[in-house]
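Input (structure):
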C-alpha cells in the first residue's frame, strides 16, 4: 500500500504517511528505515524513484560482472562474481519482500538500508572488485 500510494512521481521527500503514524495505527510497515526502505522510496519518490534505485543497483551488478569477465585469474573472477551475486540477490530479495511478493527474510537493501554491518560488507566487496579491476598483467 505504501509503494502504491506514491503513484508515478511520489509524495515528495519527507512527505510520507508511514513515518508520521505509528505501526499500531496502520499496520503497514514495521521497520521502514531498515528492511522496508524500498517502501519509503516508493512512497516518497514514486515509480520513477523506484526505477532509478533498481537501475542503479543493476548497474553496480553489471559493472561487477564486467570486472569479473576481464579479470586475469580465477580468484579475481570468483570474487567479483560473488560480490555481484551478493548485491543482486540481496536487492532482489529485499524488493520482493517490500512489494509483498516474498516472505519477510530480514535482508537489507545494499547501500540504502540503515545498518552498519551491511554497508561495510558491501563497501568492502566493492573495494575488492575495484582492486581486481585495477590489476593489470602485461
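Output (sequence):
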Amino acid at each position: 500500500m505504501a509503494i502504491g500510494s506514491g503513484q508515478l512521481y511520489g509524495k515528495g521527500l519527507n512527505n510520507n504517511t508511514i513515518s508520521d503514524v505509528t505501526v499500531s495505527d496502520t499496520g503497514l510497515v514495521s521497520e521502514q528505515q531498515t528492511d522496508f526502505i524500498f517502501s519509503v522510496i516508493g512512497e516518497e519518490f514514486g515509480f520513477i524513484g523506484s526505477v532509478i534505485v533498481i537501475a542503479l543497483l543493476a548497474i553496480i551488478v553489471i559493472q561487477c560482472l564486467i570486472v569479473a569477465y576481464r579479470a586475469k585469474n580465477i580468484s579475481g573472477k570468483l570474487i567479483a562474481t560473488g560480490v555481484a551475486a551478493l548485491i543482486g540477490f540481496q536487492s532482489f530479495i529485499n524488493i520482493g519482500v517490500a512489494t509483498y511478493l516474498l516472505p519477510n527474510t530480514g535482508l537489507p537493501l545494499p547501500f540504502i538500508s540503515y545498518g552498519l554491518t551491511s554497508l561495510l560488507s558491501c563497501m568492502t566487496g566493492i573495494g575488492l572488485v575495484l582492486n581486481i579491476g585495477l590489476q593489470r598483467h602485461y
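Notes: Helices lie at 2-5, 23-26, 37-70, 74-98, 116-134. DSSP finds five helices and no strands in the chain.
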